[in-house]
What does this fold into?
Amino acid sequence: MTTYVQPPKKLVDVGEVGNANTGDIIYDGGVKLNDGLTAIYNTFGDVRMWDVSAGVGTQKLHATGYYQKNPTTYYARTPTEPGSMHDLNTIAQTFTVNLPTPKLGECVYFINSNGSFSVNKIVFQAQAGGDIAGSRTLEVNQGYVRVEFICIDDTVGSAKWNYKITPMFGDFSVPSNTTVEVTKTSPQTISLFTKDRYEGVKLLISAYEIKAGVKERNVSEVLLMVDPEDNKVYSDEYSVIFKTDKLFSIEFSVVNSTTVVAKVTSTKERIHFSIKSIETIKAAI
It folds into this structure.
């Protein structure tokens, strides 16, 4: 595979109005236009297709960007480009990826779509004098992850990167994150999630009294277990913290045989009540 290095931007010199002897000739202008198109297609499309007929008739643009699948030899001799995205494969061997010399805020993203990092680790390396969160290198041995690098200091000769590693797959949605006002005479019923979605849920709850000069507050955690067959919810409130009074009572149930809800009743005239799911576990199959 031929290594492609993106050239700097070029513009066609259109010359001066009314003067045919100025500006690029048609051939030179066409070369510049083709270089620009190639750069776009090799950034937002599969650069491997560029090897055959410059990708004509095969390369397509991906609006989401494209994780390039370069051979290991590419990373051995070429620093990755700022803003680029790569799908790395270490199934055959461990290898080192050299990060570029960046500007502040520039990023480089990597994924491991075949899980091979768990077979052979990948090593990321900053340029000489630079570091990745305090170290010259970062080793990753978890498969199916996305590794994001962001430049946080572009001092010449000592650029600094920080990074984030996240799973490529999984349910990271927050089924409940709700804030309501509850009065003593008007309890609030809050929909949390459908009963078949989770086996267990951990909730974080906070409340404070809405009253001038009063600063009563509560914070607690609640663990739920859902029984979808019997349409029941079992709960345990723990780590309860309050100053002098408990501001609310809460009951969990399944309504209409579909939805887990929380019925919140205030012990004060008015309270501000927030409930958020912080951990979940899928329903058993």
The chain has a mean pLDDT of 93.
